Amino acid sequence: MEVTKAIFDHALKKIRPDTDEVVSNQIMFDDIRKFIKEKFKIEARLMGSVAKNTFIAGDKDLDIFIFFPPTTKKEVLETKGLLIGKSVFKKFGGNYQVSYAEHPYTKGKIGIFDVEIVPAYKITSTKKLMSAVDRTPFHTKYVLDNLKNPDEVRLLKKFMKAIGVYGSDLKTNGFSGYLCELLILRCKTFNNLLKHAQKWNYQEIMDLENGYKKSEYKAARTKFNDQPLIFIDPTDKNRNVAAVLSIDRLARFIYFAGKFIDSPSIDYFFRIEQPKDKRQILRSAKERGTFHIAITFKRPDLIEDILYPQLRRFRRRISDSLEHDGFVMMSSWEFGNDECGIAFELLNQTVPRFRTMTGPRIFDPKKNRDNFEDKYEDIWFEGDRMVAEVRRKHFDIMSMLGSFFDEDAKALADKGVPKNLAQEIAKNYSLVEGKDILKIKSEEFWNGLSKRM
Amino acid sequence: MEVTKAIFDHALKKIRPDTDEVVSNQIMFDDIRKFIKEKFKIEARLMGSVAKNTFIAGDKDLDIFIFFPPTTKKEVLETKGLLIGKSVFKKFGGNYQVSYAEHPYTKGKIGIFDVEIVPAYKITSTKKLMSAVDRTPFHTKYVLDNLKNPDEVRLLKKFMKAIGVYGSDLKTNGFSGYLCELLILRCKTFNNLLKHAQKWNYQEIMDLENGYKKSEYKAARTKFNDQPLIFIDPTDKNRNVAAVLSIDRLARFIYFAGKFIDSPSIDYFFRIEQPKDKRQILRSAKERGTFHIAITFKRPDLIEDILYPQLRRFRRRISDSLEHDGFVMMSSWEFGNDECGIAFELLNQTVPRFRTMTGPRIFDPKKNRDNFEDKYEDIWFEGDRMVAEVRRKHFDIMSMLGSFFDEDAKALADKGVPKNLAQEIAKNYSLVEGKDILKIKSEEFWNGLSKRM
Predict the structure, then answer these.
(1) How close does chain A come to B140, measured CA to CA in Å?
(2) Neighboring chain A residues of B202 at a CB cutoff of 8 Å
(3) From the candidates B312, B381, B397, B449, which should be mutated to test the interface with A, based on the most A CB atoms within 10 A?
């Protein structure tokens, strides 16, 4: 425990903000708050990790909420919200852009600060929720009221960032800041949490405010179906704070938590990515005796929260189609950072030149059986099932994918390719295999190919 | 219907025995019966298709049962049964052999007749059954009492023989003679049966003596689980007369019955096997883009009822093993007539050089997870499951099968190869692929490869 404590102290020295940083954040926010109050008679409050004092030194996120009465019309809230935001950036001399959540809002840089001005309804209970962001003030208040040891949250966040599981964005599908705070509230310390996680079950339920009786846990697991960790929002029992957490990220956290317990090291907080030897990775992949192919295209101009779910949907669509055609899929992954694309590891590069058509059963009406035989002529039975074979147009992976993708955007979308990707693919795409794979720069591609933790 | 009737008349002219044949059968049986009665004071009765007058012209099967009181000890019945049998063959000058059913019995040739002398208990009801053959007299009596039109049975038997579905032996897994007789009792005529069969469902129940109420049909289907046709034995409602009928043979019968209805032809009774063009079959098979391999060995000296179930078990064992190793199985079949062996059609000739090992889930005890990681070192997660890879010793089909079969008989049997086959394989076997397949003579092999009806 001595060693562990020394490691924590060492890490905290680097990630705990000093008083100057805390004060300078507060001053910047106060200036903005006063400006909004005087000019628009609107109340502004600071949210996020700076408000909760759980931010990591150097993070300069000022999430400023401006509050409208619940009687305000949606259009008024949106217009006025944008107007106030723009005024703030004009007044304090920053560049901004308009982003879109449930309502549009302004975000941008003011000096060294990352500022967001988010319009919300001032409600008195989460039961009266009018939009998703209206929950945030309740989260902030809950953490401020209950959290005694923000440094433990800082350790957790930094650890999670280092192992790649921090962030509830839809690229990472990891742990949100609020979830980190609640996990520390639940387990008291970072170190306890790591141990606690070793005993979690699938759909472990954590429920600080006893939103559910034990007898209701089964129903809760059904309600939060397919969500591998269930942390009941203490401000709204109908919400799972860990809803976007994927099983991959959860497994990764538990795994590295176990590693840290076994041999604590500062490296788990400040992980240095090993530079990748691409030739070595490709050689290992080839040695496996499988076939690798990537479909690459220009990255569409989308935020990651939209791009990654589309890439995953696209990957599943093509994967299902290839498996339906008789290819045996070993693994598949997507990448969207530099180049954009999906990749497959397959057992076979070709499929039989004939496709087996499954017909009616011998117990089906004779008319149906006759129709099948008229259509395919040469039939036989597998068990009670009539089968026939038809010659395939394409039986190797390159020509099969080629014929799938050589279409315009509409035809691709009709075949189930997500719209934004279909547009890029229709313009240009590449099927990359063999040595050409070395030309792919995307780190995510090489992570997927190398597979290792 | 005119055409159909003409076809039936034409067929019956060839398959209905004339009076001379019927009389000569009867005389031969009477001589044997008298001999047994005088010498041993034992009652003998004729069973089988000759007794029931449903035999096809030229069939010379005399199934003679000799009856012992139920109080007779099993050993006495067996010893005395064999003694009487041997005396009969000695007296009438025939060669015999001892065969084994539930009891041993003698069978052999006497002149042009195929004679069996089968010892049985003389019981008064099938409820008092002491061995399986004791049922036969009840079957014979039931058919003699009820069947009015034996010619319809002859048409059915001949049709079934021609399309390869006649015989309840474990090579054919088809329709027994008794089942043919009952089907005619149920549907009155051969032609009606063909039509009736077009409407059968899976596990169609036929129940002449109303052994079951309609409300009990569901339970009956469970009782006769996996048996695709259920014909309740009118002499014993606990028995399905079609118990050994396989789904393949049933489908084949229904299919050809439908063909005959659509375009009746005498060819369905006297089917001439087309001579097979083996090169053409092999070329078609190769064109499919799959890989074919046969494992051949000397046919063990076994009756078909024992050989074929062993071959099928062997085929499933090897098929499962290959699929477990990552080969994708398209079809498989066995052959036991000339050469003996099993054959596979596969998608791939090789598998990845590494095998994926599936480990514990992330939610399993840390100790288990640590053990897995200690054992395999390089691990990663697929969902919540730990996986690792180990290098395979063999990754092409030839070396994999070679390493499986290069063992002594005991080791092969321990690996699940049926004992009698293991003994032959241990002595010698061949893996046949490519052009060498042309050297295989077995008709059954080529039927399996060509697949067509």
Answers:
(1) 31
(2) 361, 363, 384
(3) B381
A362 CB neighbours in chain B (<8 A) are: 250-251, 254-255
Q: How are beta strands A113-121 and A61-68 bridged, if at all?
A: parallel
Question: What band does A326 get if pLDDT is binned at 50, 70 and 90?
Answer: confident
pLDDT in tens, A86-145: 999 999 988 999 988 788 999 999 999 999 999 999 998 888 888 888 999 999 999 999
Comparing C-alpha atoms, which of B67, B68, B65, B56 is closest to residue B22? B56
Per the CB < 8 Å rule, is B254 touching A288? no
Contact list, A400 vs chain B (CB under 8 Å): none
Min Cα–Cα distance to chain A from B352, Å: 4
pLDDT for the residue A323: 92
* Fold of the domain built from segment(s) B17-123: Beta Polymerase; domain 2 (3.30.460)
Decide if B352 and A288 are in contact by the 8 Å CB cutoff: yes
Helix axes B443-450, B278-287, angle to 10 degrees: 40
Q: Which residue of B has its CA nearest to A287?
A: B353
A-chain residue closest to B204, CA distance? A363
Give alpha helix (H) positions in B263-377.
Answer: 278-287, 304-324, 366-376
Left, alpha or beta for B312 (phi > 0: left; psi -120 to 50: alpha)? alpha
Please give the residue of chain A at the shortest CA–CA distance from B383.
Answer: A248
pLDDT tens sequence across A258-315? 999 999 999 999 987 777 788 888 888 888 788 999 999 999 999 898 999 999 999 9
- Residue B422 CA from chain centroid, whole number: 21
Domain ranges, ordered by start, for chain A: 16-123, 147-268, 278-351+394-450, 354-391
Contacts of residue B168, Cβ cutoff 8 Å, sequence gap at least 6 = B174, B175, B176, B179, B244, B245
- Residue B338: pLDDT above 80? no
| Cross-chain CB nearest to B289 (options A202, A255, A352) | A352
Is the ipTM of this structure higher than 0.85? Answer: no
| Residues A178, A146 contacting (CB under 8 angstroms) | no
Task: Give B-chain residues touching A366 at CB under 8 angstroms.
Answer: 198, 258
Q: Are strands B204-206 and B229-233 parallel, antiparallel or unpaired?
A: parallel
| Strand ranges of the sheet holding A385-391, from the earlier edge strand across to the other edge | A354-361, A385-391, A379-382
Confidence (pLDDT) at B277: 85
Dist CA B128 CA B124 (whole Å): 7
Does the structure show a pLDDT above 90 at A256?
A: yes
Q: Report the distance separating Cα A95 and Cα A343, nearest Å.
A: 38
Class of domain A278-351+394-450: alpha beta
Max CA pair span of chain B:
86
> Which of B350, B364, B366 best probes binding to A when mutated, by most A CB atoms within 10 angstroms?
B366
In the DSSP assignment, the letter for residue A276 is: P
Tell me the CA distances in angstroms from A135 to A115, A124, B63, one per residue in order.
19, 10, 89
Contact call for B366 and A248, based on CB within 8 A? no
Q: Which residue of B has its CA nearest to A348?
A: B348
Cross-chain residue pair B248–A381, CB shorter than 8 Å: yes
Q: Facing residues of A344 across strands?
A: A293, A332
Selected residue of A327, A362, A367, A450 to mutate for chain B interface (largest B Cβ count, 10 A) = A362
* Residue in A336, A345, A344 with CA at minimum distance from that of residue A441: A336
pLDDT at A160 over 80: yes
Report the chain A residue with the minimal C-alpha distance to residue B249.
A383
Kindly report the CATH class assigned to A147-268: mainly alpha
Closest B-chain CA to A326: B347
**Which CATH code fits A16-123?**
3.30.460.10
- Whether residue A451 has pLDDT greater than 80: no
